[in-house]
TrEMBL record:
A single BP term in Gene Ontology: carboxylic acid metabolic process
Gene3D superfamilies noted in UniProt: 3.90.1150.170, Type I PLP-dependent aspartate aminotransferase-like (Major domain)
Record note on quaternary structure: Homodimer.
GO terms of molecular function: pyridoxal phosphate binding; sulfinoalanine decarboxylase activity
Cofactor: pyridoxal 5'-phosphate
CDD domains in the record: DOPA_deC_like
Listed name of the protein: Cysteine sulfinic acid decarboxylase
Amino acid sequence: MAESQPLLSLDGDPVAAEALLQDVFRIVVDEVIRKGTNAFEKVCEWKEPEELKQLLDLELRHEGESQEQILERCRAVIRYSVKTCHPRFFNQLFSGLDPHALAGRIVTESLNTSQYTYEIAPVFVLMEEEVLKKLRALVGWSSGDGVFCPGGSISNMYAVNLARYQRYPDCKQRGLRALPPLALFTSKECHYSIKKGAAFLGLGTDSVRMVKADERGKMIPEDLERQISLAKAEGAVPFLVSATSGTTVLGAFDPLDAIADVCQHHGLWLHVDAAWGGSVLLSQTHRHLLAGIQRADSVAWNPHKLLSAGLQCSALLLRDTSNLLKRCHGSQASYLFQQDKFYDVALDTGDKVVQCGRRVDCLKLWLMWKAQGGQGLERRVDQAFALAGYLVEELKKREGFELVMEPEFVNVCFWFVPPSLRGKKESPDYSERLSKVAPILKERMVRKGSMMIGYQPHGTLSNFFRMVVANPALTRADMDFLLNELEWLGQDL
C-alpha cells in the first residue's frame, strides 16, 4: 500500500526538493544576509506575543501546505526574528555573521551526521581533533584532550564532573554514596552555570563557595585561600576552583597565576571558564590578560562569541592525557562502540561525552580559520579592543554618559544619565530613578527596531548598559550611532 499510494510530499522528488531549497536559500541570502546586515534596516520588528502568534499561524494541522505557503512561512520567520548579524545588535556576547562559518554550518546541517564514531563521521572525527589541538596549543599545552560541547554551560559542568571523578572514581558507579561533603570555589562574578552545574550533578548549590571579587570583578586569591580553609574546617572536601577569563557583565579576567598557586598548594583542580575571553589568546597584544591559563586542568572556550563562528561552537579543553573523559563518561554501548571494528576504535570519540547523538560543531570554525588564518582572527580580536577603546573615549566627551569602570575587555559598561537627573547625584532617590532609565530606553529602541543593547543591575549599582563590541563588521560609525541614538531616545527623560 505504501508504495502504491505515495504521500503528497517532496519525498522521492529530487527536482522539486532542489527547487524548494534554492528558493529558500535565495530568501535567506536576501532577507538574512543582505537586509540583516544592513544598518539601515531594523534589528527587529517587535510584536507582542499574541499578535506574533497570529502572524505566524503556529498551529500544526492534519493537511500539508503548498510550497508557496512554505516559502512565505520562511519569510515570516525571518521577518519577525531578531537579526543578531545586524551591526546594531549589541545585546549578547555573540553577534555578527562570518560567511565562511555560515558555509560550514550549511554543510554541517546538510550532511546531518552525528559526531560519535569514525564509521559515520570520518571527516569530522579527524577535523575535531585537529581543531581542538590548535586551541590547546593556544592555551599552552602540547598534548591533552577535549570535546565540543552544546554550550559553555555544559563545558563548565563537564569540568566539575571530571574533577569529581578524578578524585572519587567510585562515584561513577556508587553515586553520591561514595562522596564526602564536597566544596568547589568560584567568584561572585562567575557564570551562573557553575551553580546550575552543582545542582544538576547532585552536589547541591550549597557546595559552591563564593569567593570575593575586587572592585573590577576579579577573584581575590587571598579570599580564595580563606574560603578553602573555612570549608575544610567545616568538614567539607575542596576539589575544584573555577576561575573566569572574561566575566559576563564586567568582562573581568581573574588572576590565574595567583589562583593556580592556591590550587597547587591544596591539590585542587583548576578550571578556567574562558567561554567569553578565550579568543583573546589569539592576540599577541592582549593575551597577557590570560597569563597563567596553561596551568589550568581544564578550559571552556566559546569561539561562537568573540570569533563569530556561529552558534554553537563551544570547546572543553583538557590538559589530561589519561583518557579521563572516556573513563568518566563511557558506557561502552555495544551497538555503537564495537571493539572488533576494522579500523582503530580509538577514533570513536562518542563515549567521551554524556550525549549519544552529538552535532558537528568543528567545521564552521575550521572553515573560517582556513579562510581567515590565525592572523585574520587575531586582527578581528584586536579590532574589537580598538573599537571598545574608541567608544570609551567618545563616551567621556559627552554629557550624560558615565562609565561604570574603565574596561579591560570589550564589555563597555555605562550609565546614560538623562537631562532630568544630571547634577542630582546627591538626591536621595537618584539611584532609584536612574535604575528606571535603562529599561525605558531598552523598550524604546526595541519597539523602534534601531538597536539592541543589554542592561542589568550589579550588586548595589543601578541598572546600567553593557555594550558588547564583538561583531567583526562594526565600525566607528556604529559606536557613534549608539551614543547618538541613546541621546535621542532619552532626551525627554
